[in-house]
Amino acid sequence: MLLLTGQYEAALEFLVRTPRLRCHGVHMAIALLKTGYLAVTGSSEAPLLSIESHDAPPCRRLNPSRLITLYTNRFETSAPREALHYYFVLRDTYAPGPPHNMFASCVAALALQTRDFGAIFGALDAEGCVSPGLLHEFGTREADIRHVVVYAAECSENKGE
What are φ and ψ of residue 139, in 5° steps? Predict the structure, then answer.
């Protein structure tokens, strides 16, 4: 009923709360996000579903960053390639603090958690050539990959690792 009345955000939140419908809710949210039909929160730290002061009832806002990170938490260490595909959806969503997108934040957190830097970022061989990592599959520019690597290094350094 929520979908039929255009209350997509509340409908998606309901689907995500139901374990057997969770994946459908996440995939539907990604499709609605990319087509511009979702009302999203301005902060990646907001709850999954929120109301902003200027929203008229029954309007709700969905937090796509929280939705995707909650969904990928279950499998990100065992299937990092799949988790990166979900994180890539967040490349236009920005994290609080320094101007980093949520894609960079999630990838950095995943790399620090799994410690599989070579598989995620790629590696240099003995001749100085880069062997591509999982990030290279997204067709991102080398500068974008370097940005994520530098951000992961900064996070690691800040944690004293």
Answer: 70, 20
**Residue 84 CB neighbours (<10 A):** 21
Q: Residue 103 is encoded by which pair of tokens?
A: 């894609």
DSSP per-residue codes, 9-25: HHHHHHHHHSGGGHHHH
Domain ranges of the chain: 1-74, 77-160
Which secondary-structure segment (H or E) carries 62?
strand 61-62
Token pair 């937090």: residue = 63
Which one has a higher pLDDT value, 139 or 57?
57
Beta carbons of 89 and 67 less than 8 angstroms apart: no
The CA distance from 104 to 96, in Å, is 12
Q: Does 144 have pLDDT greater than 80?
A: no
